[in-house]
Design goal:
It is found in: Peroxisome. Belongs to the short-chain dehydrogenases/reductases (SDR) family. 45% of the residues lie in helices and 14% in strands. The chain has 12 helices and 8 strands. Strands 3-2-1-4-5-6-7-8 form an 8-stranded mixed beta sheet, with helices on both faces. Helix 1 links the parallel strand 1 and strand 2 (34-38). The longest helix has 29 residues, at 111-139. The model has no long low-confidence stretch (mean pLDDT 96). It binds 1,4-dihydronicotinamide adenine dinucleotide. 1,4-dihydronicotinamide adenine dinucleotide is lined by residues 14-15, 17-21, 38-42, 44, 46, 52, 73-75, 97-100, 120, 124, 147, 149, 191-194, 196-199. 1,4-dihydronicotinamide adenine dinucleotide binds at residues 14-15, 17-21, 38-42, 44, 46, 52, 73-75, 97-100, 120, 124, 147, 149, 191-194, 196-199.
Length: 318
């Protein structure tokens, strides 16, 4: 099989001045892509600035690749896209990776802690992607990556702002995947594990050392490739391990016999075991699949009501 290459492709990696983003940018650059290395260069709470993006662009160029540094915040998404267009004339791949932390226990989370984190992660990814989307649509090609987090999937003490934004990105990705499909624009979400400045004081030292950020990059590259058909999916990635997620929904139970019966909290209580039992669970992949099961069930309840109202017609009809 041919190696995974990105010749003639233009890639934007936001927050690529360090950590995971840097490793994505280097890997794309090494495989032929023209890379926009975006990074504001602030500290991990988003304060200050530095020339980190220049250093990464220099690393790519020193290795024989093509790159340009960009210092706009993801809140100025259109400027980042313009940098790609001015320098390389296209935008094929966008990796929304920029991020900050403002950890506080939920009750102590201020408006600013909430807003800053949402502005960079969720609103920032929205703004950069919205600016890229029409360009990709015109090309009839695009690959978009959103960056989520296990904190969003599972929750994490002290990260209510961050976990809400990170799972918000999954919802955003799911809808972009649906809207982009017909233009060959795919959008997938990655929840990475990497030893970076964001995690140095939360991961045990051994784990921090082993979860090298460059071990996440191969998944991001494959999801960004034109041959990859994956769309609207979520993956966890760390230490060279990659796994896809899906939703699981219990078979559940209608807590009434017919469409005309009332539904009571007592009935919910009395059926709790079945409502929460994952034996033979469903795995709806789309909104349509999820609601179709409900609609079918409602039809059964209607049929049950008419049999109850007219028992003889059903007995004789068989
Ligand atoms: P990092 O702090 O090394 O990298 C984030 C980069 O984003 C920084 O270089 C920072 O300057 C840049 N940035 C921040 N605000 C920006 C803005 N407004 N505009 C442009 N750039 C901005 O952290 P790390 O760990 O590499 O994180 C990368 C992404 O992965 C983040 O979205 C983070 O939330 C996510 N993540 C990381 C995990 C990990 O284990 N390291 C776990 C789960 C998610």
């Amino acid at each position: 099989m041919a190696p995974v290459r990105f010749d003639d492709k233009v890639v934007i990696v936001t927050g690529a001045g360090g950590g995971l983003g840097r490793t994505y940018a280097l890997a794309f650059g090494a495989r032929g892509a023209k890379v926009v290395v975006n990074d504001l260069g602030g500290d991990r709470s988003g304060q200050g600035s530095s020339r980190a993006a220049d250093r990464v662009a220099y690393e790519i160029k020193s290795a024989g690749g093509t790159a340009v540094a960009n210092y706009d915040t993801v809140e100025d998404g259109d400027k980042i896209i313009q940098t790609a267009l001015d320098n390389f004339g296209r935008v094929d791949i966008l990796v929304n990776n920029a991020g900050i932390l403002r950890d506080k226990s939920f009750a102590r989370t201020s408006d600013t802690d909430w807003d800053m984190v949402h502005r960079v992660h969720l609103r920032g990814s929205f703004l950069v992607t919205r600016a890229a989307f029409p360009v990709m649509k015109k090309q009839n090609f695009g690959r978009i990556i959103m960056t989520s987090s296990s904190s969003g999937i599972y929750g994490n003490f002290g990260q209510s702002n961050y976990s809400a934004a990170k799972l918000g990105l999954l919802g955003l990705s799911n809808t972009i995947a649906i809207e982009g499909q017909k233009y060959n624009i795919h959008c997938n979400t990655v929840a990475p594990y990497g030893g970076t400045r964001l995690t140095e004081d939360v991961m045990p030292p051994d784990m921090y050392k082993e979860l090298k950020p460059e071990l996440v990059a191969p998944l991001v590259l494959w999801l960004s490739h034109e041959d990859c058909e994956e769309n609207g999916s979520l993956f966890e990635a760390g230490g060279g391990w990659f796994g896809k997620y899906r939703w699981e929904r219990a078979q559940g139970k209608f807590c009434r016999e017919t469409i005309n019966d009332p539904v009571t909290p007592e009935a919910v209580r009395d059926n709790w075991e079945t409502i929460t039992d994952f034996t033979d669970a469903h795995h709806p992949g789309t909104n349509h699949e999820a609601s179709a099961l409900l609609v079918m069930g409602l039809q059964d309840l209607k049929a049950a009501a008419s049999i109850k109202a007219n028992p003889t017609s059903s007995a004789g009809g068989g």
